[in-house]
Amino acid sequence: MERNALNNKIVSSALITSFHSFIFGMNLAIFSTYKEIFVSDKRIASFMMTETEFKHAVCVICLGALLSNLCASMINIKRKNFLIINGMINLIGQLCIKFAFSSFFIICARFIIGIGAGLTTGLVPLYHLKLAPLHLKGLFGSLNQLFCVIGVFFAQIYSFYFNKESNWQIGQNFTLLFVGLHFLSCFFIIKVEENSVQLPNKNIIQLISNPNARKSILIITMILIGQQISGIKSIIFYSEEIFKKTGNSHLYIAFLGISLILGTIVSMFIIDKAGRKKLLLISSLVAAGNLFLLALNKFIFFAIFGFVIGYSIGLGPIPWFIAGEGYPEDYKEAGSTLGISANWLTNYTVALNFPILLNYSTKHAFLPLFVHSFFYFSLFLFYFLRLKEGKLIFCD
């Protein structure tokens, strides 16, 4: 039975679970700012990392997320309990970073953090959709992305102060305190209502075997892949390197975070009125145009602003919850697992290979992959995405 009105318990539960996404965004961006600490001629603590080890430590979060997203669909645990477990995993990951004594241990810690990230992207959007009143589905569904980009922004500001060998551990203590308190708060969220008619959840094999589902699988998976081939995560992972080439890196990074937050907030309040398809198309075209300018090394400041705002009004929030709207109730978890797994695999591939493109040539790094991908992705959305009342329908 759907909820039709807000109350304090719904709002507090939505906010508490949204901080899973905040932690996810923070972890996504914060470690890349530690490069000068861990990759150095000096010995930091009892170890140092090579460039290759550091690159894998940054990207391995995606593999942990991929694993947890696939495994979560096979375990029959209530969403509230899973979210509590996720809070504990986030805490364990941060403890491992705090007490790491080798490069391998750092990579393992990042993998554990990735497990938490995968559970976040799989659980939080679905929990919010079950929690939301009917007329606020889009707004609640966008909370995941909003808190994620706030987490990214926080990580960038945090890194301005706690980015030295002498004080990064102090910053890590604050992170541990916050993650620990969030873990405790997860015990107070409400259980989402189950359907009045209980249907057994279908698995991925059953979903793929259903001929009525194949077009929905293709569309939703492509939308989730399209989110990653936009290049946004690569800009987040390696923002320091990109902005060092333009000067005033701290200022640019702060503006990047503010742009992401403002664009996502705008999207939250227009998404239910404008519709998913229109926002995705506008988002793709605006982001692609600005990415093209960035690739040509023209109007860099304007292009970065335009790109992240274009991304955040559609490609940022919509893919995370569209699977929850595009499948019947008994297929939601399998559909989300399939699409989000493709998202994380693409994320890993792009993040691992983007530094090669960046080192090859700043001018051409974005052009061969991201701009062309945007063009074909926009055509795909225009011709294949079918909607009813602004939402994706289960295709037949």
TrEMBL record:
GO terms for molecular function: hexose transmembrane transporter activity. Pfam families: Sugar_tr (PF00083). It is found in: Membrane. Residues 13-391 form the Major facilitator superfamily (MFS) profile domain. Its main location: membrane. It is a multi-pass membrane protein. InterPro entries: GLUT (IPR045263), MFS_dom (IPR020846), MFS_sugar_transport-like (IPR005828), MFS_trans_sf (IPR036259), Sugar/inositol_transpt (IPR003663), Sugar_transporter_CS (IPR005829). One of its GO terms (cellular component) is membrane. The keyword Transport applies. The chain crosses the membrane at residues 12-34, 54-75, 95-119, 139-162, 174-192, 217-239, 251-271, 277-296, 301-322, 365-385. Keywords: Membrane, Transmembrane, Transmembrane helix, Transport. Belongs to the major facilitator superfamily. Sugar transporter (TC 2.A.1.1) family. This is Major Facilitator Superfamily (MFS) protein.
